[in-house]
Amino acid sequence: MNKFSAVVSTAAGQKFALSGNQAAARGAVEAGVSLATGCPGTQATQVLEELIPLHEYHHTTSLWSINEKVALETAAACSWVGYRSLVCMTGLGLNVAAPSLMPAASLGAEGGLVIFVNDDPGAHFGRLGRDSGHYARLARLPMLEPSTPQELKDWAVRAFDASEQSRIPIMVRSTTFLAQTISPVVLGDQSRVRKQPRVPEHILSPLCLDFSQCLTQQQDIEKRCTEASKVLEDLSVLELRSPEIGVITCGATDPIFREFLESLPDMNPSMLKVALTFPPPVHAMTALLEHCRTVVVLEEMEPMLEIELLAAAQRLGRGTRIVGKRHRMELYTGEYDYSRVAVLMEEATGKNLMVSSMKSSLLQEIAATETKRPLTFCSGCPHRATYYAIGKALSALGLNRNDVVITGDLGCGMMGKHENFPTPQMEMSMGASIGLALGMHFAGLDKRLIAVIGDGSLFHSGLPALLEAIHRQAGITVIVLDNGCNAITGCQKNPGSDKEFLRKDELRVDLLSLLKAAGLKFVRRASPYAQKNMVKAIMDAMSNSKPSVVLAQAPCPQLAVPRKRGRMVVKTSRCVGVEACPQSCVSVLGCPSLVVDDEGKVSVNNTTCVQCGLCKDVCPHGAITTAWSTPSIRRVRS
Question: DSSP states of 501-533 as a string?
């Protein structure tokens, strides 16, 4: 049974332990969502993964889109014809969807459209994104910030209702903290509303062609945004108690502060829990300002509520003291915890309130005992073999690392930065490696240029830059790490995935055929496990003065299980030990299945080893042997 099928089959009124992402998915089900779209991206990936099996139970269509822009456009159009739609993405993914976010906001929603965005204040999963609240303000879209999985489920239902009632998309912002929080959630009834699809007249009208209508449209979205905020304003909770100090919380800061407050039984502050961070609850904020002499604002990332509060105080002519992060740059990034709450509360009260010191010390002790896992490729990952082949090709061409610039991309390929390989020296965003190489080519940089990109990133947003390279005939080499899936987020399929992983109504897009059809003259396909062929393909590509592409094609070991026809065996009589071997398999490959014993000799952990055979190729002493060198792959469905 699928892990979500139990949640789907559980009756209303029952309690179920759900993570934040699972609660968001359940909320969409209870709201009667008809279409869910998204693009793989940690932490928002899990929401759509929970919904994909629902077609059998709930007639809900869930799609992995090629990128976030396409996902938003697909969901928006489905909403326009009357069906409730959900689109999921990360805060960074919202940047990709931005060109379509403004028009989608202007054209509105008919069937209810919820944009679920997962921000990562602690930068746990890559580059630190900015606060998605900026996009809510820019597009004039109401944005909810739940604090618990229960709120996330319940508010998702309310968001769909408000979106449909006010005819405007609603943003729901989560964070990594909430996405991974697990708590009991009381389930509600599941809606199965199906409507007859139709396209409203205002969608068909050429609004963007008439200047006066564009102005009317802008006024209309402001009106609809205000209407939606009134529908949702009851979710914010104001508790007026002590006039000495008031506290404003939202999102993840609310449960943290309430737990912090349990250690201070004598403190009874007034509180405002903000649910709708845009438009903010101005009336409730004004009431708190008029009641309290000091107000503390607890919010992660940008000080948006703090700025609104300062503006409200200015309008009222109040001298209320406002304590927040605007003068504390260290609080602009990172997740809030006990220590950050204590810092602001101490500033507000002038007292030493670090009652959480014991808990903070305990957390520090736990962190000290945490096992530090290096970022590395999985055992048998074809990307490790590809980077090793790049190094061998450079050596054969008489080049060293200073003679080349390797641009990288987001995804598993960036793990190469932590290995002893010719690694990507820079990265910007998903799909950017080819564009970076193009810029250096046009700048006349006197170095060989290699762009490394995954197949998922290439489909996502790398193809336009590659087409530009073909059109300009730029002399760059593109190496596509083609493992048939978006591996780093959990092996989700993409248009290039093998047909075994596609639905019956889906067609596989063959990259080789696509690039040849685009006019690319040099494109080769090689298996990273077949090192001789792989090295030759890279050498030939780098010797070409025009754009060239090498498809390093082999399945992700998490998606396809090699048949283990034997065991990798290290002959200890031939192994000289890692200290005496400057090119040891451990130092060159860094494979987690290679283990060094107390005597410095290498052994193979055959429990995790997938017998890719690369260590056998690397060992200069022939100490590693096996009955075969090329794995036979048995594909399994994810």
Answer: GS-TT--PPPHHHHHHHTT-SEEEEE-TTSHHH
